[in-house]
Design brief:
alpha+beta
Length: about 60
């Protein structure tokens, strides 16, 4: 399991930025790449209040 998908209840971009020392645009770019490689990571919400979560178990949990 990756550091950004550790199962914590909070998975916002602000936490990723603090850990990795990236700006918000870099975080968006990295998370898009990660989502492409690991579909179990989903973005919830839009804009400043959005967060990333690791949802193991396939597409049925994401409503796809």
């Amino acid at each position: 399991m990756c550091w950004f998908a550790s199962g914590s209840s909070r998975g916002g971009a602000a936490e990723i930025r603090q850990i990795a020392h990236l700006d918000r645009h870099q975080v968006v770019r990295v998370m898009k790449e990660v989502q492409h490689e690991e579909p179990a990571i989903v973005r919830e919400g839009v804009g400043k209040g959005s967060r990333y979560r690791y949802l193991p178990g396939g597409s049925e949990r994401r409503g796809l």
